[in-house]
Fold BTB domain-containing protein.
Amino acid sequence: MALTDYCNREKFSDITIKSGHLEFKCHKIILCKASAYFEKLLDPDGNFIERTLSVIELKDDHPEAVGAMLRYIYDFDYRPKVQTKKVEDGDEYSCPAIFHLHVYDAAHKYLFPRLASKALAAVNTALEELKKRDDVATAHVFEVIKLLHEREEKPFQATSKVLIQRHMASMMKQKEFRAWLEEDDNQALDQVLDSIADCVNGRHKLRVCKCCSWTSLDSTHNLSHLCRVGNAHVDSPNRYHSVDLGYIGGNLSILDTTR
């Protein structure tokens, strides 16, 4: 039998890894070979209580990411083989960037360097694709932005800003996004918050392309862009929605949309 045949199988398994609602039958020798974290955690001569346990629970991780991480050490491919559940908002099937970011986090935390490198490459590919699309659910975009915003790496921070600017019109309609912007104290969003403040205080408008939802946070003199739907440069104010921002009851709100 190949190593892949023992992935999440009872045969010869000597430890179970739990994460959320999922359980995975594993083998200590394989875990320790792949990860310095598990090698130290399960060392029979070590000081960790986990070395005596038959079940270890990883409480603070995304269950699907843990499953992907464990699949990888058996067959070096962490992607699901088949889709076995209904696609729902925010899961790995409907938004690859979210899934790969969670896998990258798990691999980095549990010291799987090869998987971390592979997942990071997948993250970058998924983010580049996400930046080009206008048909992604707002909830997915918001989740990706929050995940990126937690990281200090400049490329991730830059991508977060691009996504906020590109999807500003749709996200500003979401109460959760507005609350997150107002509560956040990280310096990474200063530029975006300053732009929003200019719109509010100066009564400037957001300009949103009627075709592809491209958004400009500047005044009307900077409207030219390549429309992804019409595949042509658009620079006429008549081709945009105008969105007013302001405060209602202390909350940042969309006051009016002119079509």
